[in-house]
Amino acid sequence: MVKTVIEILNQDCKQLKKLFEELILKHSIIYRWNEPGSFIISTHPYSWKDLSDKGKQLQSRVYKEYLHFAERSRLLLLNQPPDSIASFDESKNEIIAIINQENTYLSSLEKALSEVYKNLDNQIKLLDNIYDQSSGKILYVPDTNALLANPRIEQWRFDDVSEFEIILTPTVLSELDELKITHRVESVRKKAEGLIRQIKGYRGRGKLNDGVPLVSGVSTLKSIAVEPNFNKTLSWLDPSNDDDRILASFIEVMKIYPNSPVIIVTNDINMQNKAEFAGIPFIEPPELIME
After folding, report:
1. Beta strands in 146-277 (DSSP E)
2. 132 dihedral zone (left: phi>0; alpha: psi -120 to 50; beta)
3. How confident is the model over 204-257, as pLDDT tens digits?
4. So where are the chain's domains?
């Protein structure tokens, strides 16, 4: 079953909760450093004992995986009201303070774990409340290589998917425009030129920005005009890298349709590796059927 972007993040959140439970309940100790009657007044009278080496390794893993989850989640909230973003950031700060085992007002391990759960649940709730106007179809977003591998997009079919939409990003369209002129291999230039001509021809069926039918009852084609903003995407993406620009464009589609199953279509192994690291589902393009 294909999951939506938010369903994937929900699944990741459940895994995070298990890691937090192990870190806090099996490796951590809370004690009161500021005894009642002390002349030092503090709103955080409890502290954590030093972790064992194994505990520190788990702490490092939890920190890394939580930041990865938080970065992907927060991207979806960038077009939401400021209050939602502020609430997410507040929860993030609370969680990181517990991961780092800073002085705290929490008097027991159980309360610390409960606080983590409360803040994770708040972040997931903020995601669940995002509205999008998707049609409910599965959305496939091809990279340039996928289109070149099988340019006959009207023939595209995916197992167990009866109806779907293909989304074209401006980054991919720009790459095709460049390839039709600059690629050293003539066959690739001709294929890119044919794809551009084919896509332009679909405008006879309606506005590409609104979506046009490819095969009635099966597939539609839509283009988006939103360019990737590298100030508001995954921090490790490099704007000078072709694959990263396409991945950033894909993330823009995820922002527009957070409650829809969105899948990148690629046969590029490097792109697949990056998509996997980003928690993005991917699939190979359908095999080209020669007539």
Report:
1. 164-168, 212-215, 219-223, 262-265
2. beta
3. 999 999 999 999 999 999 999 888 888 889 999 999 998 899 999 998 888 888
4. 5-128, 138-283
Q: Nearest CA to 121 among 14, 6, 254, 22?
A: 14
pTM reported for the whole predicted model: 0.84
Is 228 within 8 Å of 249 (Cβ atoms)? yes
> Among the CATH numbers 3.40.50.1010, 3.30.1490.20, 3.40.30.10, 3.40.630.30, which is that of 138-283?
3.40.50.1010
> Under a CB-based contact definition with an 8 Å cutoff, are residues 155 and 198 in contact?
no
User: Could you tell me which residues come within 8 angstroms of residue 24 by beta carbon, excluding any fewer than 6 positions away?
Assistant: 98, 109, 112, 113, 116
- The whole-angstrom separation of Cα 254 and Cα 256 is 5
- Residue stretches of the chain with pLDDT short of 50: none
Residue 83 burial (CB count, 10 A): 9
> Which amino acid makes up residue 199?
I
Q: Which residues contact residue 30 at a Cβ distance below 8 angstroms, ignoring those fewer than 6 apart?
A: 46, 47, 48, 49, 104, 106, 107, 108, 109, 112
d(CA 284, CA 125) in angstroms, rounded, equals 32
Closest CA to 61 of 19, 29, 100: 19
pLDDT at 5: 85
Please tell me the predicted confidence (pLDDT) of residue 270: 94
Q: What is the pLDDT of residue 108?
A: 96
